[in-house]
Amino acid sequence: MLKINQDGLNNLWPVRSNDSHKGSYGRILIVAGNDQYGGAGILSSSAAVYAGGGLVTLATDKTNFTAVRSTLAEVMLLDFLDFDALKAALKKSTGVVIGPGLGTNATSLKILKFVLDHVQPQTPLVIDGSAIDLIATHQIQVDHPQTIFTPHQMEWQRLSGIKIVDQNPSLNQRAVDRLKAMVVLKHYETEIYAPHTDFRQIMAGNPGMATGGSGDALTGVIIALVNQVDSLALGVTLGTFLHSYTADQIYQKEAVVLPHRLIRRLPFTLKQLQKNKLL
Ligand SMILES: NC(=O)C1=CN([C@@H]2O[C@H](COP(=O)(O)OP(=O)(O)OC[C@H]3O[C@@H](n4cnc5c(N)ncnc54)[C@H](O)[C@@H]3O)[C@@H](O)[C@H]2O)[C@@H](O)CC1
Ligand SMILES: Nc1ncnc2c1ncn2[C@@H]1O[C@H](COP(=O)(O)OP(=O)(O)O)[C@@H](O)[C@H]1O
Ligand SMILES: [Mg+2]
After folding, report:
1. 196 Cβ contact partners less than 8 Å away, ≥ 6 residues apart
2. CA-CA 20 to 30 A from 22: which of 39, 56, 179, 198?
3. C-alpha distances in Å from residue 102, one per residue of 16, 112, 208
4. ipTM of this complex > 0.95?
5. Its quaternary structure (predicted)?
6. What is the mean pLDDT of residues 136-158?
């Protein structure tokens, strides 16, 4: 097991080059938020923007459009039932998130299957929340080579079949090898698994994060960081650490880490971590 702390990541934070432009930092598509869970789509997409994603599009239920526009002017919008537009967006995306607040009904399933069928093979794909539940319930085989699952322990129980009380690194690793995907197993000191590789443990995070929406925000942070470095494993590690480390800064002064406040703080922590690199 490799413990991940601030010192271990010191030289690895991406720094923006002078001749870069928005296209240098990814075209990110977030497919999230049904009519009940619109907030999940807002949290995921705003986290992607605040963590430095170049161009972020949210494909969501149409009822969320006004709320998204009034919260987050930077994000572009798509109706997630407009499959022609979704197909075109998937074709040009360099990073996709599916699942936060997607719901688990027949429409949600149709959207998930469409995304799995049309995402480009080279594009990193973060699968979270409702999408994990749908994959477990309907026993959907995910063959996408660049997949990152981000389950909490209950979602991991559903996906892997390992009961929460029985979850341990050796059983988790075997399930990850079978899945052939990265897995960010979220809890206190979150673990990051990849097939046939020693797992990493994030030495940051706190119980102030135990509030609805923290994981939705994580998906956006991860996909934004994956779009700023060359390696998938590094992007996932940096994103997961940045999320928890930012939460720790807030938790020093606030008893609950509200996800929207964590998100607003991301550019500051990112700058601070970059500066350590430049010292
Ligand atoms: N503002 C919003 O729109 C929100 C939307 N959300 C979405 O709602 C959908 C349902 O997600 P939920 O996670 O609430 O529902 P789930 O039913 O998947 O999981 C929650 C249950 O798992 C239990 N659990 C056990 N171990 C856990 C662990 N380590 N971490 C978290 N929970 C653990 C919890 O106590 C709870 O009973 C997802 O698509 C999610 O993205 C939630 O993120 C909440 C906020
Ligand atoms: N007690 C805790 N200690 C550290 N981190 C926690 C704790 N509880 C929750 N978290 C973090 O908060 C996030 C919760 O994710 P998730 O349960 O998917 O939330 P949601 O679906 O409501 O957005 C994860 O990143 C998890 O690691
Ligand atoms: Mg979640």
Report:
1. 177
2. 39
3. 33, 9, 25
4. yes
5. Homotetramer.
6. 98
Residue 205 carries which side chain, given as an amino acid letter?
G
Convert the pLDDT of each residue in 161-198 to its tens digit.
Answer: 999 999 999 999 999 999 999 999 999 999 999 999 99
Question: How far does the centroid of ligand 2 lie from the alpha carbon of residue 229, in Å?
Answer: 25
Residue list, annotated binding site for AMP: 186-190, 215
Ligand 3 centroid – CA 216 distance (Å): 6
Q: Which residue's CA is the closest to the ligand 1 atom numbered 44? A: 212
The rounded Å distance from CA 123 to ligand 1 centre is: 26
219, 101 in Cβ contact below 8 A?
no
Whose C-alpha lies nearest to ligand 1, atom 13? 129
Q: Is 187 in the pocket of ligand 1 (CB under 6 A)?
A: yes
Q: 220 in ligand 1 pocket by Cβ < 6 Å?
A: no
Distance CA 23, CA 110 (A): 30
Q: CB neighbours of 268 closer than 8 A, spacing ≥ 6?
A: none
Given pLDDT bands bounded at 50, 70 and 90, which one contains residue 274? Answer: very high
